[in-house]
Amino acid sequence: MTIRIKRMTIIGVGLLGASLGLALKKRGMVQQVTGVGRRKESLDVALERGAIDNATLDVETGVAQADAVAIATPAGLVAPMLDATLAAAPNDVVLFDVASTKQAICSHAQQACPQPRRFVGCHPMAGGEKFGPAHGNADFYVDSVCLVEQDTAIDATVRDFVCALWRSVGARVVDVDATAHDAILARTSHVPHVVAAALTRLAADHGVTAPFIGKGFRDTTRIAASRPEIWRDICRENHTAVIAALAAFRNDIEAFEALLKADDAAGIEAFFEDGAAARHKVTES
Amino acid sequence: MTIRIKRMTIIGVGLLGASLGLALKKRGMVQQVTGVGRRKESLDVALERGAIDNATLDVETGVAQADAVAIATPAGLVAPMLDATLAAAPNDVVLFDVASTKQAICSHAQQACPQPRRFVGCHPMAGGEKFGPAHGNADFYVDSVCLVEQDTAIDATVRDFVCALWRSVGARVVDVDATAHDAILARTSHVPHVVAAALTRLAADHGVTAPFIGKGFRDTTRIAASRPEIWRDICRENHTAVIAALAAFRNDIEAFEALLKADDAAGIEAFFEDGAAARHKVTES
What we know:
homodimer, alpha/beta, Rossmann fold, 2 domains, 6-stranded parallel beta sheet, 11 helices, 9 strands
């Protein structure tokens, strides 16, 4: 499917939103991109970078003429931005988001949208510690994976269009149920962020200094440097799955403590062996 | 201080032991290196690589003529190897190890050695997931940190010699008390290894597959691929500090769960903010 969009609106011109605008424009997939933001400064940077062609602070103005709207705000703002978009955009608009949580957002969309719904929950797994439109780039999504919500309630043509859009900017699309997505990402991303924060707190509480820090600690805690407000929102949006996964994780740590207290050499080795095998399994499968 | 060693013996020709032999030989600091190992295969690789000049499976033979002995075995074997060395080596031999735990080893040395003791506990913080003499290299210790036990019970000349040896192969020496070392490393290395294993187990238990794995998870769990028997030994050697640190870590995770259950937005954000500040503090200080 060849993607040609006349008027695209991107709500939220951070790293993901600005990169999407640059990627679509570079590939000639869009005629005009409108950026909607909360701060004029970010919009100015996105304009300068060429990620958007025009900018507004007002959502309803920004989406009024849109053929497609990408909601690229932090997770906690997707639902209110979707409501504002639905109130002002044309009926046949294509809608999707890029947030790291899906269940609450897709469930809200299912309530708020006319049926079959034209909103598709998306989670492009790209990014890192950098943020803001200044770091956006046109090849940001090349060789990434984009998880795309699969649900019979979604308009099939709209979903095909959104999948084709992600493929066109270089992503591999993987279908996922919204609830399953959140249970998986709690384990692969949200709990690891909480754990990285707790590990750095553990070291700092003891007054540890840099000479005692090796490569292992640096790697393990790198994501602790991510933006606090983003991870606050993600954990709140996905609180049920995150709480369950944290409890399971904490019980496993406690089980290891029991092995160590009992000086169970075989059990301790088996714990590490299983961890090594598990890493190979989940990263190579 | 210029290091000139006539006869050096390295017990354990893995990554650290083989790299030490190569580093000393490359810099003309040693005339002859004898390797002692448990398996002929490793000794053959170390000989082929030029890390050692001759090899034996018998500790007492290997150390009988030694001017200096490096015990580069896994942590759990340092004490018995030290005992065997003390029984067979010349009285004026210089002794040190390279294990990741120090308190139990140095305390054993204090009991076992004549006073002032000529054994110095060392922990060169170099390495990674690779292991074995095949990966050894002469510049392995360049720009690394070597933590060296500081204790008035150690012969000062011997300690100066060992510090100079580490500096000569490119390491920066940092003085540390053995018990403080273990409390710090429990937090910066041993607990992170347990945590990385638990995180991969959490993902594998849920049947997670590679498309759902991002860079964050890969970084955070990289050390879960380390050798199980090495980490079994390290945790057993340092069980008191590891158990205490794991309990503190687990309590912090539980505190985060409580914030999430209460939907305490400010508290959740503060937790992540403190984690980000803590990482900056411990890695940059």
